[in-house]
């Protein structure tokens, strides 16, 4: 830190932002895997019930982590943009903004689907979350479709995001990925 100028932007993302990013990745991977597998499990089976419960509770955790991330982002300073073409910076900002929006919209659409289907939402058996809307069978299908398409839109963005991160790391060989990883060197 001896070379750091007091007024300069930090060299890497603040630790809370890093931890929330990687916790979010783990949660999203588990929720997506559960979601894709659970729908094909035999109806009425204990495993199916368990996976639906976990999918919903972990999905709400994704919503909570996304809100915490937005709070952390508002409170801490982002590192300065690395040198690179201006269009890349604009595309990255747009993609990050869309991912934040979808990290809220995907779980909220799931919560809505659960509500119109008339299902309870006991979050890890600890608190009963209220429904977002009244039970309404006519809204089940549209809510299900919205949940699924919002999910695939997020998945597509994440795929591009991961390729961009790996491109920065292995091909451009800049600090983009390293500064999202805990460590001492910038
Ligand atoms: C980031 C969080 C979430 C992701 C990535 C996600 C993803 C998915 C995926 C991929 C499916 C499978 C859809 C299909 O193949 O038909 C699914 C289904 C489902 N999700 Fe989520 N979900 C999330 C959050 C939630 C939440 C918070 C709830 C409820 C509170 C929820 C409720 C449901 C329900 C009830 C289904 C089953 C729909 C059916 O049986 O047809 N999801 N989700
Ligand atoms: C579950 C999937 C993921 C989601 C939803 C996600 C979401 C995000 C978001 C919203 C940001 C913007 C941070 C901000 O400006 O506040 C970000 C930054 C970042 N992510 Fe991810 N991410 C995911 C997976 C990954 C993976 C697997 C990698 C690495 C291979 C990665 C590497 C990065 C890097 C390096 C940054 C910092 C970019 C910069 O400095 O401008 N992400 N991520």
From TrEMBL:
**One of the record's GO molecular function terms:** metal ion binding
Biological process GO annotation list? respiratory electron transport chain
Cofactor names: heme b
Keywords for the protein's UniProt record, in alphabetical order: Cell membrane, Electron transport, Heme, Iron, Membrane, Metal-binding, Transmembrane, Transmembrane helix, Transport
Pfam families found in the cross-reference section: Ni_hydr_CYTB
This protein's GO CC annotations: plasma membrane
Q: Where in the cell is it found?
A: Cell membrane
Cytochrome b561 bacterial/Ni-hydrogenase domain spans which residues?
A: 12-183
Q: Where are the transmembrane segments?
A: 19-38, 58-76, 97-117, 149-171
Say if the entry is tagged with keyword Oxidoreductase.
no
The protein's topology relative to the membrane is: Multi-pass membrane protein
In the UniProt record, does the keyword Cell membrane occur?
A: yes
For this chain, the family text in UniProt reads: Belongs to the cytochrome b561 family.
Q: What is this protein called?
A: Cytochrome b
